[in-house]
Amino acid sequence: MTISRMPLPYNPKVLELFRNPKNLGKMEDATVTAVAGNPLCGDMITFYLKINEQDIVEKATFESYGCAANIATSSIVTEMIKGMSLEDAWNISWKSVAEAVGGLPSIKFHCGILAVGALKRAIRKYHKNKNASPEWLKEELSFEEKQALEEEELAKMLARRMEKAGEQ
Question: How far apart are CA 93 and CA 104, in angstroms?
Fold first, then answer.
């Protein structure tokens, strides 16, 4: 039996950002970093943000281990948030990221969710490190943060099951 995989219908903008990502790489002098995803499932993002005293994102870079959609959405998020206040960056949704890359196949929506989840984790971590709690930063996790957590927990659970199956 052969299993064929049909290529995903990525639009030209996703493919361009995948081939030529913007702001790719580790930032040594980042103010804050955050990770979302799980290496076991393959999609993983690390965001590096340089934030000034006025809470403006001066620079954003990323490292990504994953598919074209993962790299494209991470790249576009770093472009979108440059020069933004943290409050404005917080209000970016995964849907606006998907729109900014020209759309994603539904099976790849989670890549936009992970990218925004990593961004929001970075913003939350930045404020926690400063011992600050701005009014706009709610205690309850955002949709994207919750989804990233769920995906990470699911990957861990699957890894444990595979480990147990291998022991038998």
Answer: 14
